[in-house]
Amino acid sequence: MADPGHINIINQIQKELDQLNEEWVDAEHGRLKANSCYHFETDPPHILFNLNCPPDLQDRLKNILSKYTGDYESHSFRD
Questions:
Q1: Alpha-carbon Rg of the chain, whole angstroms?
Q2: CA separation (Å) from 79 to 15, 37, 52?
Q3: How many CA atoms lie within 13 A of 63 on its CB side?
Q4: How many CA atoms lie within 13 A of 40 on its CB side?
Q5: Beta bridge mates, 49
Q6: How far apart are CA 10 and CA 15, in angstroms?
Q7: One digit per residue, pLDDT tens: the chain, 79 residues?
Q8: What are phi and psi of 19, to 5 degrees?
Q9: Cβ-Cβ contacts under 8 Å for 68 (sequence gap 6 or more)
């Protein structure tokens, strides 16, 4: 059975990510929706960044994750 505390943390992170995903961000080759350049994994909570993810957006995503987890893992991968 899943830990209720873990589920609550995931829900809080997802809520903030959903708000961020409504925004357009400037990238090297134009503007894009925030969620088009990263992927959120839940076990354990971490974010995978595409190569097109701007550094300022990466920082915002890391801040959201670290607010709830105290630490984060992130990796880059090619689109």
A1: 13
A2: 25, 8, 8
A3: 8
A4: 20
A5: 38, 76
A6: 9
A7: 567 778 889 999 999 999 999 999 888 888 989 999 999 998 888 999 998 899 999 999 999 999 988 754 444 444 3
A8: -65, -45
A9: 9, 12, 13, 45
Structural contact between residues 73 and 66, judged by C-beta atoms closer than 8 angstroms: no
The one-letter amino acid code at 71 reads D
DSSP secondary structure letters along the chain = ---HHHHHHHHHHHHHHHHHTTSEEEETTEEEEGGGSEEEEETTEEEEEETT--HHHHHHHHHHHHHHHS---EEEE--
Q: CB-based contacts of 22: which residues, under 8 Å, 6+ apart?
A: 34
Q: Where are the domains of the chain?
A: 4-77
